Amino acid sequence: DDAALIRPSAKLGEGVIIFSHAVVACDARIGDHVVINTNALIGHDTIIGDYSVVSPHAVISGDICVGEGVEIGSGATIHPGITIGEWSKIGMGSIIYKSITPNVIISGKPAKIVTRTAHDWYKNQV
């Protein structure tokens, strides 16, 4: 069966796309226009902001807050209780142990800031 598993207590926003074999655990809140790709896991009590993308095989453990416009790469793992700042990007296979500020690109095991995002650069130019 190719169905995703979405717990009844999870809340999904408008225009959410959830691919096959993804799991959205109890009490998760998914914002508007979020993409949750194949085999991604969204843990309990997790909040995912509008316009975010969760790539295949990413694991977002429980009680995590993902800001608006965040991109989480394939196979990335985010440990419980972490906050990911808006418009940040997490490289594939990264392991996140600490909260991440907005508008950064992070990568590695453990993940470290690589650079600022173009979104942050643009905001500072206006």
Write a short abstract of this structure.
The chain is mainly beta.
Mean pLDDT across all amino acids: 92
Terminal CA distance reads 49 Å
| Portion in helices | under 10%
Q: Main β-sheet: number of strands, strand sense, barrel status? A: 7 strands, mixed
Quaternary state of this entry equals single chain
Q: What's the alpha carbon Rg, rounded to whole Å?
A: 14 Å
For the largest sheet, list the strands in their spatial order.
Answer: 3-6-9-12-15-17-18
Order of helices and strands: EEEEEEEEEEEEEEEEEEH
DSSP strand tally: 18
Low-confidence stretches: none
SS content category: mainly beta
Beta-strand level of the residues, as a percent range?
25-35%
Separate helix tally: 1
Shape: globular
